[in-house]
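Need a sequence for this fold. Nothing fancy.
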């Protein structure tokens, strides 16, 4: 059940794809852990900047808004920002500005975000992705193992890998592991 990871038009064959829900991410929070790894792209030569690169797309017990349910078929998630960032409503932004200008102290919002990155891409270094869409298309059970056909699309920010914003795509079957606690994959 091999899949592909694409950066622009370069296709990398996937050699590992697993995900699971984590009850405790090592910091007292729950979340999702994804681990997708590739082999080198066969189309590249030694002159290409991505030659001899193994790519990794992952998350480590992060607060990705995927429901915890038995069958994820049909679930779609869109993440505009690369991290769990909570934006203040307009009225609270005004209040925050008032506190900053007139009271010379920060306004403490009622809700706090974790500010954890949802997904990371590792090529030369860790890179955040934006405008990420994740779709669970189909479910298949083989030998008591649970697999999902997923499609992930995103944008790699300008300057992260190349000097311009680049398209990113994963089209693969991914194995769902049992619920667990954080263990480095």
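Here you go.
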């Amino acid at each position: 059940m091999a899949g592909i990871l694409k950066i622009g038009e370069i296709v990398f064959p996937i050699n590992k794809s697993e995900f699971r829900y984590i009850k405790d991410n090592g910091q007292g929070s729950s979340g999702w852990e994804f681990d997708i790894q590739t082999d080198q792209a066969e189309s590249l030569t030694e002159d290409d900047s991505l030659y001899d690169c193994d790519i990794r797309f992952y998350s480590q017990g992060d607060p990705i808004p995927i429901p915890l349910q038995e069958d994820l078929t049909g679930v779609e998630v869109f993440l505009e920002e690369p991290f769990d960032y909570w934006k203040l409503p307009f009225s609270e932004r005004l209040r925050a500005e008032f506190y900053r200008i007139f009271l010379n102290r920060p306004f403490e919002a009622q809700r706090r975000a974790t500010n954890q990155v949802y997904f990371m891409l590792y090529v030369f270094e860790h890179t955040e992705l934006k405008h990420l869409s994740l779709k669970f298309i189909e479910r298949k059970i083989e030998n008591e193992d649970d697999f999902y056909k997923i499609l992930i699309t995103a944008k790699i920010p300008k300057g992260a890998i190349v000097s311009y914003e680049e398209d990113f795509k994963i089209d693969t079957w991914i194995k769902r592991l049992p619920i667990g606690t954080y263990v480095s994959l």
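For context: The longest strand covers residues 10-22.
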